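Supplementary Methods, section 5.1.

A reviewer requested that the exact input to the structure prediction be made available. We therefore reproduce it here, unchanged from the version used in the analyses.
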Amino acid sequence: MPHHHHLAASRPEPQPQLPMPPHRHLVPLLLLLLPLAVSGSDADAGGNATSAPLACSELSRVCTAFLAFPAAGAGAANATLLESMFDAAPGDLTADAAASPGYAFVRKNCSCLPSRTYLANTTYTIPSSAAASGAAPNATAADVAAAAYAGLAVPPPGGAAQRPPRPGAVVALHLLCGCSSGPWNYLLSYVGVDGDTVESLSSRFGASMDAIEAANAMVGPDPITAGKVYYIPLNSVPGQAYAALSPPAPAPAPADNTLPETPDHHSTKFPYGWVIGGMGVALALIAIALLALVLWKFFGHNLQDPNNQGKSPDQHKFQLLKSGSFCYGSGRYLCCQFGNAKPTRADGGDHHTSVPKGVAADVFDKEKPVVFSYEEILTSTDSFSDANLLGHGTYGSVYYGVLRDQEVAIKRMMATKTKEFIVEMKVLCKVHHASLVELIGYAASKDELFLVYEYSQNGSLKNHLHDPESKGYSSLSWIFRVQIALDAARGLEYIHEHTKDHYVHRDIKSSNILLDGSFRAKISDFGLAKLVVKSSDAEASVTKVVGTFGYLAPEYLRDGLATTKSDVYAFGVVLFELISGKEAITRAEGDASSNSERRSLASVMLTALGKCPSSVYMGNLKDCIDRNLRDLYPHDCVYKMAMLAKQCVDEDPVLRPDMKQVVITLSQILLSSIEWEASQAGNSQVFSGLVAGR
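The structure derived from this sequence is encoded token-by-token as follows.
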């Protein structure tokens, strides 16, 4: 099956400037949104200087905890920011919109670490100007991080956090959290501010004063110290769903229902019945007139337009959904808009194709994608010139274009591929996540269909792994590879668990993982995605086998049963690709002849792991690690990722982890890799993100 290069950039351009490490690029925005959580004389304490992690005794204990973070209003922009800062999924955020100042509540898994303290993990990227964060000129990276997290985070001892804040440096952080040892379900980490008292916290969060004092080992009338973390006992999830909450519109002034006193004239009464009846008749006549106008507009137009003779109204559903501009959401494209949109004059009727009956109602429901004219598509791609061709896929070619001053990728499909076209729109107009490629809109002509996506400047992951130098790409560093794996895992976790309808992608592979300008990964190509059916046993969709060999799970090949565990298997193969730099179907090492034996990468890596007892004695596994890494990687982290990949490609789907477990493991590997990176401070190649070719 041909490889996809959907939306991937392979234009003959100079390599982009090396970006900052790909962890937190929203920090400058955060610094504009942060309120002053620490003020007055206590601010000199450094925010969390007086805060210590909560002690624990059960080293294996993991619980759900919440952190209260001061946020300047709930909205899509803040949600994206918080997800990035706290390594949180969209479903992990709630908001306290009614209170002032407002707080966002972040759900985290809190663990009892070997230090016998409760902590959660995250990472932080130092902004381009440390001064912008309000830190002192001689501040360390730890000081900058403490200011950004308003006292909720502390750095691990030693490492990069104690060095000067180098712009772009990634700092591993511990979040202060806690697990309840009393009768409460959760503990909420809250940083005290001036004016707080135990009584005010009790009133705000609905916890008793005795419970707050017990959870924080407070004796007597201890005051609340500004800048110190306190643990608030809770029995329910705090706040409400984190959405674009806007203040309610002011209620209209109540109507004056009191009638002025009038003399009681028994001989004359006002004819209220006649007035009400007359108004009813008038409204009915107006409704009939409007209905007649709508019918005349619709049918009269079709009868008078010679181009519409013999055509079904269903053939014009695309035209009824037109829009003249892009929609935006939180700085990213928002493909769907609400309500009916009018066609633009640029969209000639000759350029539109028919759509199967019921598509508009079934696919778009209340949300409708932006529609571009065929002329716009043609102009933006320079009439589909070879210079703008990005790649070929199973269902069409992908071109680079500039639409309304925005770089885009345009998938060009034959009209016979309507089914795949509709599936991709149906999925991408319902799911939105930073790790999923964003659909902007579509266009159609008599013979072709076009999908318009956000443009991924650094192409596909495949181009950076498999013989990158011959394609004009640089190989990725170990840190970049782990971050890309984590991004893709979060995207899969989102469609598997956090959407209203759960989906199986069915074509996860390195060519369908795209890299943006900061080398953050986005999953693309949802043309084969399938809605999974919930049952008492599992979520599955029986279908004909589609996808790419080398990535297909054994049970899917055998039974055609697509489940979320099928995607987990394919993701495991991608992990093996990230480690080895080899393709999913590979030839024997050192034998490039056309008739040499071809084996699945999964079988090659599993054989090597079978002879690798530990990360200390890596043996055959080391021979399988991508030579482009040039031994610039932490052996224990590579081993852990390889073992995770092994679990993902287990023959028994029941034994494979779900994507939530994969995300947790990769987060831990990333943090360990960052700590290793800090220990290699003298090696500039480690910090470059990209490894220069030999």
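Residues 1-6, 10-49, 244-268, 301-361 have pLDDT under 50 and may be disordered. These observations are discussed further in the main text.
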